[in-house]
Amino acid sequence: MGIDFTDNMRDSSELKSQPSYHSKEQHALERNLIAETASGDEKAFEQLYKIYFNRLYQFIFHVTRRLNGIEEVINDVMYVVWEKASSYDQVCRPSTWILGIAYLKALKNSRQNWIREEQSDEFTDEQDYFPDSSASWITEIEINNWLEVAFDKLSTEQRAVVEMTYYQGLHYQEISEIMQCPENTVKTRMFHARKILTRLYNDHNGRS
């Protein structure tokens, strides 16, 4: 495939724009682009890449919390889309299929980069992360957006659920398909994420 992914990269300042992802027309367009990609149409693939680049950039960052390597992960995701486009069954929304690939790639990237032993996603679902009472944490809150700081206190799975629910607009059933887990597990992760974010928000307000 003679496509240079880097030609399609967008400036990070464009990431703030949020196009409409959920119209029937958009879904139909994406389904057609995937079908054309399956037949080897590189122009259709490039268009699909441009549609999803910003969305994948945000999604992968919120899951991994690392800027380094995001574009590489996006390329890995879109390479799978190119190679496996013929396997898309047209039943689920295109975004569910593509974000499912992205979730697995982001999770793999996170596991490869984890430093602390206790951050294993196998054990963090039921754990709550609370802010230190140290001055350095207070300074960090004052300098950075509190939600961005709070995201770092969530587990990888909790961040993924919050991202897919509030930023990507997916339903719990779709998220359960992407994460390959029961819908109740998704709801549990969201419950704990909300609990942590509420605690951090209240703590932030109490300190400000």
Approximately how much helix is present in the residues? Answer: 55-70%
- CATH class placement of the largest domain: Mainly Alpha
- Portion in strands: under 5%
As for the CATH topology of the largest domain, it is Rna Polymerase Sigma Factor, Chain: A
Q: Tell me the radius of gyration.
A: 18 Å
What is the element string, with H for helices and E for strands?
Answer: HHHHHHHHH
CATH architecture of the largest domain: Orthogonal Bundle
Give the overall average pLDDT.
Answer: 77
Question: What descriptive keywords fit this protein?
Answer:
208 residues; mainly alpha; Rna Polymerase Sigma Factor, Chain: A; Arc Repressor Mutant, subunit A; 2 domains; 0% strand; globular
Question: What topology does this entry show?
Answer:
Layout: H1 24-38, H2 42-64, H3 70-84, H4 94-113, H5 135-143, H6 146-151, H7 156-167, H8 172-179, H9 183-207
Helix pairs in contact: 1-2, 2-3, 2-4, 2-7, 3-4, 4-8, 7-9, 8-9
Can you describe this structure?
- The chain is an all-alpha fold and 208 residues long.
- The protein has 2 domains: 18-117, Orthogonal Bundle (Rna Polymerase Sigma Factor, Chain: A), CATH 1.10.1740.10; 125-208, Arc Repressor Mutant, subunit A.
- The protein is 64% helix and 0% strand.
- It contains 9 helices and no strands.
- The chain starts with 23 loop residues before the first helix and ends with a helix.
- Mean pLDDT is 77; it is low at 4-19 and 115-144.
Task: Provide a brief overview of the structure.
With 208 residues, the protein is mainly α. The protein has helices at residues 24-38, 42-64, 70-84, 94-113, 135-143, 146-151, 156-167, 172-179, 183-207. It folds into 2 domains: 18-117, Rna Polymerase Sigma Factor, Chain: A; 125-208, Arc Repressor Mutant, subunit A, CATH 1.10.10.
